[in-house]
Prior knowledge:
The structure holds three protein chains of three kinds.
Chain A: E1 8-16, H1 21-31, E2 36-44, E3 47-54, H2 57-66, E4 71-82, H3 87-97, E5 102-110, E6 113-120, H4 123-132
Antiparallel strand pairs in A: 1-3, 1-4, 2-3, 4-6, 5-6
Chain B: H1 5-9, H2 12-30, H3 34-43, H4 64-69, E1 83-89, E2 97-102, H5 103-119, E3 127-130, H6 138-149, E4 153-155, H7 162-172, E5 176-179, H8 181-193, E6 203-207, H9 213-223, E7 226-233, E8 238-244, E9 251-253, E10 258-263, E11 277-283, E12 294-300, E13 314-315, E14 320-321, E15 326-328, E16 331-333, H10 335-343, E17 348-359, E18 362-371, H11 380-398, E19 403-407, E20 422-424
Chain C: H1 6-9, H2 13-34, H3 36-45, H4 66-71, E1 85-91, E2 99-104, H5 105-121, E3 129-132, H6 140-152, E4 155-157, H7 164-173, E5 178-181, H8 183-195, H9 200-203, E6 208-212, H10 218-228, E7 231-238, E8 243-247, E9 255-256, E10 262-267, E11 281-287, E12 298-304, E13 319-320, E14 331-333, E15 336-338, H11 340-347, E16 353-364, E17 367-376, H12 385-403, E18 408-412, E19 427-429
Parallel strand pairs in C: 3-4, 3-5, 5-6, 6-7, 16-19, 17-18
Antiparallel strand pairs in C: 1-2, 7-8, 9-13, 10-11, 11-12, 14-15, 16-17
Amino acid sequence: MTRNKYFIKQLSIFSENKSGRLAAVAKVFEESKVNIHAFSIAEANSFGVVRAIVDKPELAFDAFSKQNYALQYTDVLGIKMNDVPGGLYHVANLLGSIGINIEYAYAFRTGTFGTLIVKVSSPEDAVEKILAAGLELVPATDYNF
Amino acid sequence: MFWNEKMETLRGKELQELQLKRLKETVARTQNIGFYQKMFAEAGIRPEDIKTLDDLSKIPFTKKADLRGGYPFGFLAVPMSRINRIHTTSGTTGKPTVVAYTKNDLNSWSELIARNLTMVGLREGDMFQNASNYSLFTGGLGFHYGAERIGCAVVPAGVGNTKRQIEMIQDFGVNAIHCTPSYAMHLTEVAEDMHANLDSLRIGVFGAEAWSENMRRDLENRLNIKAYDSYGMSELFGPGVAFECPEQDGLHIWHDCYIVEIIDPKTGEVLPAGEKGEMVVTPLVKEAMPLLRYRTGDITMLMEDDCPCGRGQKIARLFGRSDDMLTVRGINVFPSQIEHVLKNIPEVGDQFMVYIDRVNHLDEMTIDVEINKHLFSGELSDLARLQNKIGKALHETLTLRANVQLVEPGSLPRFEGKAKRVVDRRTI
Amino acid sequence: MAYYNEKIETLPRAELEKLQYQEMKVLVERLYANSVFYHDKMKAAGVLPSDIKSIADIAKLPTMKKTDLRNNYPDKLVCCPKEDLVRYHVSSGTTGKPTVVAYTKNDVELWAEAVARSLVSCGLGRGDVLQVAYGYGLFTGGLGLHYGGEKMGTTVIPASTGNSERQIELILDLETTAVACTPSYFIHLIDVAKKMDVDIAKDTKLRTAILGAEPWSESMRQYIHEQSGVVAHNIFGTSEISGPMFTDCGELNGMHICGDIAYTEILDPETGEVLPPGEKGELTMTILKKEAIPMIRYRIGDITSILEGDCPCGRTSPRIDRLQGRVDDMLVIRGINVFPSAVEHALLRVPELTSHFMLEITRTGPLDDMLVKVELKPDAMTDSINGLIGLQSRVERTLRDALNVSAKVELCPPNSLPRFEGKAKRVMDHRVF
């Protein structure tokens, strides 16, 4: 079994903190017919990093590169959560108890369950530990085609 | 080689006569100062009672905290029109300690540094890079004037910008550098990374903080220099009070300008040579701000052996402090100053902790501060602003940057009895 | 005291010019004999020392420029035995290497003499307390005012820059009567004092400010007087001629350039022709007794004019007007000279960046802010916010190390900054003086 089947390809795009920049980024997705599953913006000082999980990451990467954006792939993991009160606590508590340090995270709901996207420092080890702890990971193919 | 051979080698009866003459003059000058008039009255002594050097022990000690009471000009023995320079140094609380100089004082001070630099082999025509903080701190201008006195070419480099410091050593062919020993270590590493050739450098003058024999060997080997320990404090002019000779075994203190006593810091009893205790100094040639039996807080001892170089009795390299003063990046810090600053910021809770580390040979001070939960706005930006405000207030008082970490209320240790708020994690 | 050195400061103009001619002749002869650089320069211009027969003949001599200093880095212009040097100062250059100036003991003395005369002309005397809030160290502002103040017998407080609340406390506690700093910093100090509930006019003894190292205006002088009751004097000097040296006298109408120390000309920046008093042009100076690095007809790059008429203060030396701009693209940021080419040079050292940048200068409150917009190379992107912040602060550090003044850095996406055909206009200076 390869652990990296759980590595979801996230796009990290550099963007300035200015009005109109989000629309510009979204336009690139629109024009390249790439669908966005999940999306977050982290901001610092005068700039931000747009993070997105999309159906066709390679296509999007090319489209952004052509327009001279600075961007990068990042491997993240998607952990399934029950869509009930306490769902996040259950997951977060287990991650804490098995010593997984989360660099950043964001969450969204698909169908009947929630997904917690996490960025960890060594995803290979994390996959093993998370599965061993009895949590369920979303395979990358559910998002990236 | 001597700068002033007669004074540097003066000993026995001749030295004692000079010391006594100058002590009497100093005592007379102190009578222009309210603090000393009161001290003499309370101790029941008159200036005329100081007839021999032994009579010095009749005079009570002067402490750093006494200077605070005289802020700003209470310790001046001459009118302002005769003051040619003012420096300040860290006080025990928010206000600094003021030190003032007449033209003669500036002269005497430069003269002492000229002796020191000549003693370790600097000459007219040598190039001297002064990588020390100028301005109110006495280290920069003190060495600047001293090196200029002997005819060195001075590069007033100041602190920081290590790459440029190294480029200047190379481009100008610098022969001697003055800085803190930890900065010298840092500079050495950066120079090694740059593959810089610092062959012109012969002499390192390091002071303002404690350093070990191991560090000396390391610096001497890696920079191919001779490294010398320098001692001084602003209340006694500044750097230049005592200095190592090429024997590198103890520091010559200039007995024509300073009377040294070593005391038991608890009882105040004077200890004989060879015994460790707190150094008490009576400066003999200070005009603007004479002091009597000033407690330096530094632990050392008078050495018993004669020095082959022919100069007078030495003191040992410092063993530590008799109080809780810290030296961070060469700057003296009293925990009471930090407390004073934090108490004046309402958003700060009751508790704080200070951690001192050495990262890449440079000191880092981290201060954990509990926030006051009653004044928490819930806004991230307010927390960032508070962090900045604390950092700025500390910088203004300590003249030192500290990393401020805001921590949750109730998370820092509580102390019963004497608080131990400072954790010094450096190994020197 | 009215004058620091009355005899020389009030020497009749004709005698002064005679003295200037004599000094100039000695200087040219010395340089022709001892300086390879100036000897070659004179030869190329076809001038011999014997051609200098009157003060007007000075116009025959070749001029010097900042590039001459850079091209002869670090000490090829030094014209005395190395043992005679007692000081080096360093200022920012046009590219990576700084401009170095060296001094003999006499050079330092002469500089201090000029500053001492100037301080006395501003009304300072022995009982005054002068707080020097210029940067100390390699920058000439701090040590220049310091030595001059000490020489004339004031009490000098070497406060250096920054720590504004502490500066106000020093002014209050140490009964400071005069402050020397940049004009924008002085206005900042007025604001800080207000925030601290300190009324400079009522609560302090501060009466005089010696302001320089950056352009300022008569309206700023009035503003300072209205807000603080302080009389602000203009001081001029640049490290190449030693450092800050010459100020307005009590008349506040032009800076006296001590004639026995410096010979002043105004040149047409295009043709190099000498312009008459009253006409604006490039300030050019000859420092008559400089030993270590003599400067003959040094083109300073500042635009001003020589004022006509005698000054009622009795000093006979010529006066120059306020500086009115530059002939080149040099900027002055918080008193520090910055060349856009030096910014470009520094940015080349950061591999994550393209070669495009923009420089925006603003004044928030009274202090200058320099914003450098830099462009990220596409492959330099990282997902880590900390990594990007780290890059940003690394660029800021690189710039501070190179320019000696701090700049804010903004990371911009690839290809987002303007491209220029022909001469690049990378600087947007939004300040109003």
